[in-house]
């Protein structure tokens, strides 16, 4: 035990300012989604329903009801949904709400004593027991009169209630006739329209940061623009690709149906301590260096590498991408090469070591002398302002998405502030966190406001891992993290991809494209580039350190490029695949066959009809497998059926085949031929 | 979807008022204990340690540290404990804090960048790699100078740091000598006393309601005072026991070592609709009625049944109990017989039905015409004031504990208000909630402020159930519920007790007395009264409806009374048995043998030495069983040992036998002879 002195106590967390007590007349507790007691906003997406849950209960036997209320950024109530008890015995209530445009939304819960339901419940029992008949109908009269007061005078409702009141009060009529009058459809409709509510209780209001759909759903394609169109002269020296030659690749990418073209950094690259091929410490003449070693005498994060071209070229690239229906994502790596102008202009933005030198990146004993990290604590306001200026510069040139390199090496509070500012000033701009790190940081960055996050998908390969992870991202961390599923990146080539042959590239692409609303492909995937640098789970001859033009003609034979296009086309046809929270795992009889259903609720689709897709994938890249699937019928509103009863007509979006299915269909999946089904579903 | 109009929006939950952002420089997230985001206080007990946990992490590689800070009711920091990572990889940090007296305490967490640890970590690696030697010691100089600034001038610390600084700066010395100087015990002590802390971050402060030890730990004994000393005249009519005759029983109860005598209601009993024996609807002449049908022309909740005696008698009863070291708990049943004065004096405190009559209790089709429930919504302020007046009246007569009958039939917000007032004005008064109902309500009442709660113990009988429940009450619901373990009550006689014979009464008493810090015995347990009213899991000839004097001579033969006394004596010797949060389940080889270790930390015991008790119980009342126990050694700070190595000398508090134990002892437990061990433990 030590004693701490000299600083003031933090404040006690405060009550919500409306009520003097924490517990309302009808207790509403453990409301979710709720991050840090509501001090951080949960994530919402336009046209994505999210579940509101709370433990609601009351004293005694009287019935009660609860509803979830959605409040738009202007403070207007726009949706009110009745909550249903999803854990009878534990009184856990749920309703789904759907925000419809980006902004600072909020939600709360209200609960009330429900005298009409209580009366009906008691009346039915008492009439059956032939007890208290007169009293039962006197009570009905009181309630109907109360309902009349709420109804619009001279409205249809009002007339219906009055008619019921008249019959209910006639003690000469048989009890069952009076009951029928009191519970007629017209009365029920009136009561539903304006329920009688006693002891109305409201919860605090909880924040929900709603982003545009692309923050949740999209297909990414990553390129190193300098590789696109690069070529080797006869003397063996290289000529860099440019933004112009990269622009020429956009048609090919758009043909595959991608939504986002992501460019690794395009800024000038330092020459001091430049890395050579395969991450060697010394570059050879002509080695282009890592684009993550940002900055040279030619400029820093606000400049374009002269070999890539000019801002005009960049603007043309963006314009062409937009014309093809794609957004441009730019890599933001907040770090410097030794030659970055900031090192001389703003040495105070870095860490000065005890010997007066500026600190390069280290993880002792490893030294990264080509990289100088910013010190966010030395001059935080100026650094913050400069980074905002740079981001806005690129936004001014049409960038709508930033892929943030290593956000977990910068203070989380910095991101919270930055992301809040951009949500206010540029709500269209999306930030992807590249934080392949521990769960608290990965999830914390999501909670701090990152729109989406690279995640552990690449390392979840077995059936158990895949099922558990799909459940986690869709139902546990969905309040703070929107996962991006990438089978590979320029830094990641897992053993599964190294050893699974071309089928592994099919399997993981299908899993990524259907398992989460955002997926991404790193250029070269079409060629099944799967050779690793010995001892590392990343590609040999990594594009980070050299030019890597590719011959796309060679990609046609293996069919991967065609599959990527097919997957994106299927995704665009199915809102179910562009929503995160609608997922059910379907158990299967085989340890390699994964099946799941993705669905969108009616309110999540523009036609109001909802959508569902059933996926079945063979995770074994080497063997054909036959398996039985036990379909979870709940997303379809179908009850358990006799074993062979046909329930669905399913159409395989991959093969074009149609099947009639019951609840327990059999699939045959051969990685050499067709490793998966993606079924459109029609209920019979 | 319906539309709701006409009431103002609830407030957004607010930030804690200190920081503009929710995330501090070093993120501190998901702090527990935390109920409703900190709007309700978690439970603490004087001299009971409680765990503070938080997810703490930071950007980059630099090391950091966190500590939990305990703040007393005056706002003074009284304890600061370093947190340790209990889930490496998930960055879940924990420390235990111990409040020392009742009141409104609070706690918070602070975290900081730890430059000294970072330097040591890096220095060791760099010296091994023989790199940056000069820089390493320049950094050490900087840090030692910073430490010097924090140290008291001319103190021992200051001199030690200066000595180290001098040696560290001597580049003529070998690096290892300089390292040794920098990391000498004296320097480490100075650094530990006044750590260098960069980027100090504090969490919000969370409330902790601390109660006196009796709120957590005690042994209860329940009596119907009218049964104590009641007798039947020769003509068959009964003469009621009185508070005076009940006083005569106090010695017997005290001899068994109980801490609390609990009296079922002692108020006048209504005659209208009085219940007869075995809950029959009509009382026969001479039937005394249920003491829960409170109130007659002789008075209500502020009166004493004339047959029981006077306030003077009551005061004498309380005085005698206190003289014997026992507190008196009074039953508070906030309901009325039809003859309660409130019905005529305050009809507005009840529900008037549509026909103008006052509503009795109902759960249709069942009617409880002997009971009129209060309506807490009609005139809430006056009812509240009257109940406070009544409770204070009894407090004025020496009552320090209330056993609240059916709190779950009254509004939870009423309890929150009442309990907050009593915590302020009468912090010594303890309220026990009798809410045998759904988990949300049971736990909600605890969160609302009830000091302790009847719970599901009576229905947890199998090994799986017992182990799971012990874990739940000690580690999951411990922030809001202090459980009271009662093997039976006047309302509860489970099938296990009905059919397990006398051994069942031993087994469940031992489990109750050692499984939780509060346990309770209902009078008659000594006689193994186990005959149920047919079709009900409660006693036949229930004492609620008749006089039930008992012949305690008959109790001597079965040994139960002696066992109760032994158990209370053992509890009084062992603080480990009077704390909730120190529990480890020891796996055993048999499905009927349960074993667990209860322990108190050094700071929880008055001698500062801590305490531990190992319990082993045979849950099968019919068969002797031999089983192997796999002791969880963690409470003893002992690492796993070779199979047969002796670790402990254990002394069985029940039999007086002593054994030498390794990590996997064998026990033989025969319900006919000795169904359990309760071991005092001495490490060898």
Describe the oligomeric state of these chains in a short phrase: homodimer
Total of domains of chain A: 4
Strand content of chain A: 15-25%
What is the overall shape of chain A?
A: globular
The two chains with the largest interface, and their residue counts, are: A-B, 102 and 102 residues
SS element count, helices of chain A: 17
Relative helix content of chain A: 25-40%
Task: Describe the structure concisely.
Two copies of one chain form a homodimer. With 684 residues, the first copy, chain A, is an alpha/beta fold.
Topology, please?
The structure is a homodimer of 684-residue chains.
Chain A: E1 28-32, E2 42-45, E3 50-56, E4 64-71, E5 77-82, E6 84-85, E7 92-97, E8 103-113, H1 115-128, H2 133-150, H3 156-168, H4 175-182, H5 185-193, E9 198-202, E10 206-211, H6 213-216, E11 218-223, E12 231-232, E13 238-239, H7 243-247, H8 250-255, E14 260-263, H9 311-323, E15 327-332, E16 335-336, H10 341-345, E17 361-363, E18 366-368, E19 372-373, H11 380-396, E20 401-405, H12 412-425, E21 430-434, H13 439-448, E22 452-454, H14 463-476, E23 483-485, H15 495-499, H16 501-515, E24 518-522, H17 560-573, E25 583-586, E26 593-600, E27 611-618, E28 625-628, E29 648-652, E30 658-661, E31 666-669, E32 676-683
Parallel strand pairs in A: 2-10, 11-14, 11-24, 14-15, 15-20, 20-21, 21-22, 22-23, 23-24
Antiparallel strand pairs in A: 1-3, 3-7, 4-5, 4-8, 6-7, 8-9, 8-10, 12-13, 16-19, 17-18, 25-26, 26-27, 27-32, 28-31, 29-30, 29-32
């Amino acid at each position: 035990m030590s004693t701490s002195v000299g600083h003031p106590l933090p404040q006690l967390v405060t009550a919500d300012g409306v009520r003097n007590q924490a517990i309302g007349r009808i207790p509403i507790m453990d409301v979710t989604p709720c991050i840090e007691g509501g001090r951080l906003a949960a994530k919402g997406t336009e046209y994505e329903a999210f579940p509101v849950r709370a433990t609601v209960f009351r004293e005694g036997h009287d019935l009660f009801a609860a509803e979830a209320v959605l409040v738009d950024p202007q403070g207007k109530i726009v949706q009110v949904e009745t909550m249903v008890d999803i854990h009878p015995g534990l009184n856990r209530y749920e309703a789904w709400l759907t925000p419809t445009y980006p902004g600072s939304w909020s939600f709360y819960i209200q609960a009330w004593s429900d005298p009409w339901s209580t009366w009906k419940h008691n009346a039915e029992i008492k009439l059956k027991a032939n007890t208290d008949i007169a009293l039962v109908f006197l009570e009905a009269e009181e309630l109907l009169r109360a309902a009349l007061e709420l109804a619009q005078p001279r409205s249809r409702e009002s007339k219906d209630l009055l008619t019921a009141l008249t019959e209910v009060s006639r003690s000469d009529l048989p009890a069952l006739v009076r009951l029928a009058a009191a519970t007629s459809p017209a009365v029920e409709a009136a009561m539903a329209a304006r329920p009688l509510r006693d002891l109305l209780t409201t919860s605090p209001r909880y924040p929900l940061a709603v982003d545009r759909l692309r923050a949740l759903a999209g297909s990414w394609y990553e390129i190193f623009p300098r590789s696109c169109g690069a070529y080797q002269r006869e003397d063996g020296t290289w000529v860099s690709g440019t933004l112009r030659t990269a622009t020429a690749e956009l048609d090919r990418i758009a043909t595959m149906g991608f939504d986002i073209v992501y460019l690794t950094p395009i800024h000038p690259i330092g020459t001091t301590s430049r890395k050579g091929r395969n991450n060697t410490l010394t570059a050879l003449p002509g080695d282009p260096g890592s684009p993550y070693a940002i900055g040279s005498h030619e400029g820093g994060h606000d400049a374009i590498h002269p070999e890539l071209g000019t801002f005009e070229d960049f603007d043309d690239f963006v314009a062409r991408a937009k014309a093809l229906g794609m957004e441009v994502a730019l890599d933001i790596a907040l770090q410097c090469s030794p030659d970055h102008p900031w090192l001389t202009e703003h040495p105070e933005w870095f860490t000065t070591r005890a010997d007066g030198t500026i600190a390069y990146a280290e993880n002792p004993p490893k030294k990264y002398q080509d990289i100088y990290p910013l010190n966010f604590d030395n001059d935080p306001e100026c650094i913050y302002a400069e980074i905002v200026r740079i981001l806005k510069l690129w936004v001014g040139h049409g960038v709508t998405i930033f892929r943030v390199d290593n956000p977990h090496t910068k203070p989380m509070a910095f991101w919270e502030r930055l992301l809040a500012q951009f949500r206010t000033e540029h709500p269209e701009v999306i930030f992807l966190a590249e934080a392949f790190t521990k769960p608290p940081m990965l999830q914390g960055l999501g909670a701090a406001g990152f729109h989406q996050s690279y995640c552990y998908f690449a390392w979840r390969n077995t059936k158990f891992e895949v099922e558990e992870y799909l459940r986690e991202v869709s139902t546990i961390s969905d309040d703070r993290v929107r996962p991006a599923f990438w089978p590979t990146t320029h830094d990641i080539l897992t053993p599964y991809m190294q050893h699974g042959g071309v089928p592994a590239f099919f399997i993981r692409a299908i899993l990524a494209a259907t398992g989460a609303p955002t997926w991404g492909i790193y250029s070269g995937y079409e060629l099944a580039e799967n050779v690793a640098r010995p001892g590392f789970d990343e590609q040999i001859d990594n594009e980070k350190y050299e030019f890597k033009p590719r011959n796309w003609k060679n990609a046609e034979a293996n069919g991967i490029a065609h599959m990527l296009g097919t997957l994106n086309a299927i995704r665009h046809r199915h809102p179910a695949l562009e929503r995160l929270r609608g997922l059910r795992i379907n158990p299967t009889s085989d340890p390699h066959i994964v099946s799941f259903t993705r669905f969108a609720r009616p309110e999540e689709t523009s036609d109001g009809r909802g959508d569902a897709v059933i996926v079945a994938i063979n995770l074994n890249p080497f063997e054909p497998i036959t398996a039985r699937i036990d379909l979870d019928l709940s997303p379809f509103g179908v009850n358990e059926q006799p074993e062979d009863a046909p329930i669905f007509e399913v159409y395989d979006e991959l093969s074009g085949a149609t099947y009639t299915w019951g609840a327990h269909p059999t699939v045959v999946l051969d990685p050499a031929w067709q490793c998966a089904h993606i079924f459109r579903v029609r209920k019979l």
